[in-house]
Amino acid sequence: MYGILDCNSFYASCERVFKPHLIDKPIVVLSNNDGCVIARSEEAKDFVPMGAEAFKYENVFKENAIHVFSSNYSLYGDLSTRVMSILSKFSPDIEIYSIDEAFFKLDHVKEDEIADYILIIKNTIEKWVGIPVSIGVAPTKSLSKVANKIAKKYFEKTHGIYVITNEEQRVKALKWTKVENVWGIGRRISKQLKLQQIYSAYNFTMLSDDYVRKKFSVVGLRLKQDLLGEPIIGFEAVKNKQHIATTRTFEKSLKEYEPIKERLATFANACAEKLRIQHSECMCLYVFLKTSSYSKVQRNVGVVIHLPYATNSSFIICKYAVKGLNQLFLKGYNYKKTGVIVMGLKPESQHQFSIFEDEKPKHKVLMNVIDGFNLKCGTSKIKIANQDFKTWKMKQDYLSPRYTTAIDEIIEIKCN
DNA sequence: TCTGGGGTCCTAGGACCC
DNA sequence: TCTGGGGTCCTAGGACCC
Q1: How much is the pLDDT for A356?
Q2: How far apart are the first and last CA of chain A?
Q3: Which nucleotides of B are covered by protein (CB under 7 A)?
Q4: Which of A81, A156, A161, A183 is the most exposed place for a label (fewest CB within 10 A)?
Q5: What letter would DSSP give residue A389?
Q6: Average pLDDT rounded to a whole number, residues A332-355
Q7: Radius of gyration, alpha carbons of chain A
Q8: Are strands A27-30 and A67-70 parallel, antiparallel or unpaired?
Q9: Cα–Cα–Cα angle for A246, A247, A253, nearest 5°?
Q10: Which nucleotide lies nearest residue A218, CA to C1'?
Q11: Buried-exposed string A80-102: b where 16+ CB fall within 10 A, e elsewhere
Q12: CB of residue A336 closer than 7 A to nucleic acid strand B?
């Protein structure tokens, strides 16, 4: 049996952990630069759609006494780690699927004890971390997702947990599930399915293999079989990333070359650091530069740069990223976003030397020292010279403290 | 003035090999 | 009129996820 644990309104719940007076109050959390809504508590869902532009909804926030937060990834990341580590005490086999979700196996639990067991998991996490969660269990991953939806939807009845064990429950659950809510069926495919009068997940599983295969490829076919109760979608091992991106929208648009170069250098450096964390090197970079997609005058350009040898040196990646920018930058535009994506990743251990290279990959020792120092003394204490001394602030007008990861932002308790 | 930021997998088609 | 039968690798684009 597969379980999926999903934190309820995760970012909003994180904000509540240290502000318990917000329990039962509507909360929204905004994206970087306070751009749009990326998380809503249950209470806020009726007033604000997902992705709503913050500046358009200011009045809605006020009128409905909605508490607004800038995203605080230090806090969410740390609380996520705590949730996952508790879950891993209850199951030897977990697959962290996203910041707020994890699949886990329950082979070690007898079938008739599963419901009790997952209730203990749920209660423990709520008690130890303070994050409410929902858990669905079923014979396959895609069915566990369905079970999870039921657990959330009928909270009063299910207390946030639901188990699909037999065929009757499976069919009932799939008949209840709208086809567009199936994990793996997105907007395009659900639209096509509805044109064929396929409205429920159950209808989808009744289509012929041939038709599904032809129309939606092996991906669709695997999903169908998984929904039928045959575990086809397996556990994913933790793998190194195949590409790594660092991209940001600027708070205000930038016209001049220098500040954009600084941003890009910082992003290139960040990519290099991420590469070193997973012990990979990259063979090429993609650099892009764009104006706001809402502005009248558009410039939206990118370039792939092949490196002479695989590297994860901040200096080299940065140097080539700036070379890319030099090809892309034209004066006279209001640029709003730039970014670097490193691609063609290879394990460091399989470094292919070239005839002109030293016996050690470039800057390896130096990068080790820099990473070690930054780890010990704080991120970005050592930067490269293309970067500014100052920290670029994004718009974060509603940022809560990093209660659990910064000692000077730790919660204060006033005692009489 | 204001509109995140990451990822994955699959397929078709082109270019090449024998 | 007719023109085989395998392969591989790479890329762009489309679909999906959070």
Answers
A1: 67
A2: 51
A3: 2-11
A4: A156
A5: S
A6: 87
A7: 24
A8: parallel
A9: 150
A10: B10
A11: beebbebbeebbeebbbeebbbb
A12: yes
